[in-house]
Amino acid sequence: MTHFLQIHAQMIRNLLFEDSFAASKLIEFCAVSDSGNIHYARKIFSQISHPNTFTWNTILRGYANSPFPRPSLHLFNQMLKSGAKPNSFTFPSVIKACAHLAAFEQGMQLHGFISKSGVDYDLFSINGLIHMYAVCGKTDFARRLFDTSCQRDLVSWNSMLTGYVSCGLLAQARQLFDEMPERGVVSWNVMISGYCKSGDVDTARKLFDGMPIRNAESWNTLIAGYAKCGLVENSRDLFDQMPVRNIISWSAMITAYAQGDRPLEALALFDRMRKANLKPNWATIVSALSACAHIGALDRGRSIHLYVDQSKMKVDSIIGTALIDMYAKCGSIENAFRIFDMLASKDVFSWTAMIGGLAVNGHAEKALELFSQMEGDGVRPNEVTFVGVLSACSHGGFVELARQHFNSMKLVYGIDPQMEHYGCMVDTLGRAGLLQEAVPFLEAIPVKANPVLWGTLLGACWIHRNAKIGEYVGDRLVELQPDDGGVYVLLSNIYATVGRWDDARRVRVLMKSKGLKKSPGRSSIEVHGAIHEFYAGDKSHPRIEEIYLMLDKIRSRLKLVGYTPNTSPVLFDVQDEEKEHAVSYHSEKLAIAFGLISMEAGVPIRIVKNLRVCHDCHTVSKLISNIFSRDIVLRDRNVFHYFRDGCCSCRDYCNRDGANRDNVVARTITVDKWGHGNFRSVQEAIDSIPPNNKWWIRIHVAPGVYNEKVRIPKEKPFIVLEGENRRTTIIQWNDHGNAITSCTFALFAENFVARNISFKNSYDQISPRVHGKVVTWAPAALIQADKASFYYCAFISLQDTLTDSQGRHYFKSCYIEGAIDFIWGNGRSVYQACAINSVARALNGITGYVTAQGRNSSAEDTGFIFQRCVVYGTGSTYLGRAYGGYSRVIFYKTALSNNVVPEGWSAWGYTGHE
User: Fold this and answer.
1) Please, is 316 exposed, middle or buried when counting C-beta atoms within 10 Å of its C-beta (0-12, 13-18, 19+)?
2) Largest CA distance in the chain
3) Which residues form the Pectinesterase catalytic domain (predicted)?
4) What is the pLDDT of residue 659?
5) What 8-state DSSP symbol labels residue 483?
6) Which of 181, 234, 357, 868 is 20 to 30 Å apart from 617, CA to CA?
């Protein structure tokens, strides 16, 4: 292309561009050759004042052969308007564009134009029209043209044959195949492909064996056909017999392994291909990345990504989507998002992969936010997108939102819910503990009963320890899958969790009498690019002695922190010691122990398990993450678990019993001051919640300034109050005087969460707290309840902004503004990554105070801790004053600007507080 540009420049300099023949040759190179650029060809074409028919044909051919054929149709209309006369070389390109676009109407109009134009049909046009009609699914039109054509060659027969096969009309295709006067290798390949797609690989093999001549496509088609039917060994036998393999052969076999649940063999074959100095194509890369995603092989996935970059392969939406999927399923959601952001063009598949990745990694709100962004960008979701959306609702506990999205599938997008969507809804209801609602929902599904859905509900019964519904669901599952040992195990575990040991034993005995076994637990871990697999009680690993020694060390450390094994699923009549031994060697524990002895300190341990993680392994993983200071990422059959510092990202869902409803949102109430929600005011929404509620209820407040006082009384616990953004969702009032009555927002109920919302008191008169002077309160918020958390909120006033009165509180990434004592009270609170802005300049020379902590006894377990915060603002300010006799405030790793006075603290004139 560089030489071409130099030639073009010389032609312009020497005025040779006026020569239409020379200009046409430039366009021909740019539009048709592999080294050209169709967009540059179009620019050259637009500079020709009177292009001739040859020039028009050249640019039409270039677009028809490109991935962007639509301009061919527009240019053809321009050609007709310009007066240039199309000839027999014009029509095949435009017909090809119609076929590529499946543009039946335009193709039929073009057919009519050719008939009326007087230009003789040539065989290229006839074959092109047959192919166009067939591609558009109009086999009757194609056959009529085929039958009435005076000229027919092998291409004509193959075009008609391909049309029948692509429309699934195998009987008509076979009849035409048998009538063919001669058959080429393409004819045989088309029929073999048709039978493979229909699942009839036996007939496909008979045709293959009867072929007089085979090419690589013949072998590749049958390899893919066997793989589609799950006959991977047959695919491999055929692959090994191939006389000559091309890149498509390798890709087909790697894909067969990747899609056949044999990812290790897929990656091994990919490595063998690379060693043979064969360059993978996009299909090979996608299959290899899929294999990495399947087993959580992050290092292998990264190496393939590096190869893509080093070989300068274009990261388009296809490879980009595969990378997003790989990173997300390997638990590296940051890298997945980085790839998503860098994609120049995002199609529905890349959006869907990112939404699904966020959902399975526990970022439910971000997934739903991305879905809204996708809709806003005009990308129409498909059925797979809604699987990700509903999965996000399920993992986030957004029951009402799940119902809304589920209903919108048909009403808004015309998508009929499939089994996967019903499964997500059952999971959503099950996770929320709404088991009595889940059963009739499942029984009313207008599709054939699916054991996977009933299995999902049975798992929820186990989580919530509901033996009554579990028994009913288990009976249904046994009817549907009488030979599935996993059903019996799960049902017996449900009985065990509620102490019904006789029933648990009865189910196990029944299972044993039928000779059934549950699928063995299998965990895989990647260490330095190699994949290691472990089964429960496994002793086959070469380093098994070291692994068992590490397990002994883990057990000793666990006992020191009070751990006792959860042996409830071990139901046989064995001693407690044997029960403990049974749960101590689960596959994920072996994998974690191997990771601890094999991986450098600080490197996260990443594990993929084929089954749901059990109670005991979940507890042990949390403890190990804390004791050994090691992050553990465990992907089980349902979700990712991120263990860090003794906590899990799933918020202990898998350890939850029926009485623990933490973080499950059962209902969402919307507030919109313009009347587009359930209520116009926040207080109305709070008043609508029944007293002594035991489920989390979300109040979502639309953007706007809500001029009202808001009170959450003691009898209204479990409320989540959230806005869209703290800059746009503001609760505001103007009052001063008594701290309780004048505050804009007052919280007296336990278990409260606020997100993305501002609380403001606009009263702007300051009465400085100088000893002996009158005090005037004007709080933005009063927190006088236990277990309250605030994320990305803002508290704005001048005096006594945030009255952190009593209870345990957590403030994350909040903005707090004030001048005098604007964080005060006797709470037991942590402020993390908060911005604290002192506006003490408004005090006219009086120094301000950030905190006034009210601890009055050394026995009180109260105080404020500021971690990784920043204190800044205008005017001099103290970090705090000794409001209580034993005031306690800690600033840890916090940035302090120059407006903080050097003394830092003030005794506020009280004797003994120095």
Assistant:
1) middle
2) 114
3) 669-909
4) 36
5) T
6) 357
* The predicted structure's pLDDT at residue 712: 97
The contacts found for 122-127 with CB under 8 angstroms, 24 or more apart, are 122/88, 123/151, 123/153, 123/155, 123/156, 124/88, 124/91, 124/92, 125/88, 125/91, 125/92, 125/95, 126/151, 126/152, 126/156, 127/153, 127/155, 127/156, 127/159
Look up residue 78 and give its two tokens: 């321009």
> Two tokens at 407?
């209903």
Supply 803's token pair. 């009255």
Distance, CA of 432 to CA of 114 (rounded, Å) = 65
Paired strand residues for 755: 722, 791
Taking each continuous run of H as one helix and of E as one strand, the counts in the chain are 37, 31
Angle separating helix axes 247-259 and 263-275, nearest 10 degrees: 160
pLDDT at 661 over 90: no
Q: What is the pLDDT of residue 204?
A: 92
Tell how far CA 822 is from the center of its chain: 41
Tokens of 483: 């030979």
Q: What whole-number distance in Å separates Cα of residue 610 and Cα of residue 799?
A: 57
Residue 524 to residues 181, 542, 630, 654: CA-CA distances in angstroms?
56, 15, 18, 21
Q: Catalytic residue at 821?
A: yes
Please report, as a single letter, which amino acid is at residue 844: N
Q: Token pair of 804, please?
A: 């952190």
Does residue 341 have an active-site annotation? no
Q: CA-CA distance, 359 to 362, in Å (whole number)?
A: 5
Give the 3-state DSSP-derived string for 616-668, with helices as H, strands as E and coil as C.
HHHHHHHHHHHHCCCCEEEECCCCEEEEECCEECCCCHHHCCCCCCCCCEEEE
Per-residue pLDDT reduced to its tens digit, 204-216 = 999 999 999 999 9
Angle between helices 317-329 and 348-360 (to 10 degrees): 0
Angle, helix 282-295 to helix 263-275, in steps of 10 degrees: 140
Three-state secondary-structure class, residue 721: strand
Q: Kindly name the residue from 325, 616, 800, 804 that is annotated as catalytic.
A: 800
Domain with CATH 2.160.20.10 in the chain: 665-906
Which pTM does this prediction carry?
A: 0.64
CB 877 within 8 A of CB 903: no
Residue 697 has φ and ψ, to the nearest 5°, of -125, 125
Lowest mean pLDDT among 507-516, 615-624, 826-835, 838-847: 838-847
Is residue 755 a contact partner of residue 774, using CB atoms and an 8 Å limit?
A: no
Q: What is the 3-state secondary structure (H, E, C) of 833-859?
A: CCEEEEEHHHHCCCCEEEEEECCCCCC
Q: Residue 388: enclosing H or E segment and its boundaries?
A: helix 383-396
The C-alpha atoms of residue 566 and residue 575 are separated, in whole angstroms, by 14
User: What is the SS3 assignment for 683-710?
Assistant: HHHHHCCCCCCCCEEEEEECCEEEECCE
**Nearby residues of 419 by Cβ (< 8 Å), 6 or more positions away:** 447, 450, 452, 453
> Is residue 699 within 8 Å of 721, Cβ to Cβ?
yes
Q: Report pLDDT for 579.
A: 53
d(CA 719, CA 695): 8
Please check the confidence at residue 844 and state whether its pLDDT lies above 70.
no
User: pLDDT band at residue 17, thresholds of 50, 70 and 90?
Assistant: low
The one-letter amino acid at 257: Y
Output the 3-class SS for 488-543.
HHHHHHHHHHCCCHHHHHHHHHHHHHCCCCCCCCEEEEEECCEEEEEECCCCCCCC
Q: Please provide the CATH number assigned to the domain covering 665-906.
A: 2.160.20.10
Task: Using the predicted structure, report yes or no on whether residue 16 has a pLDDT greater than 60.
Answer: no
Cα 24 → chain centroid: 49
Confidence (pLDDT) at 463: 81
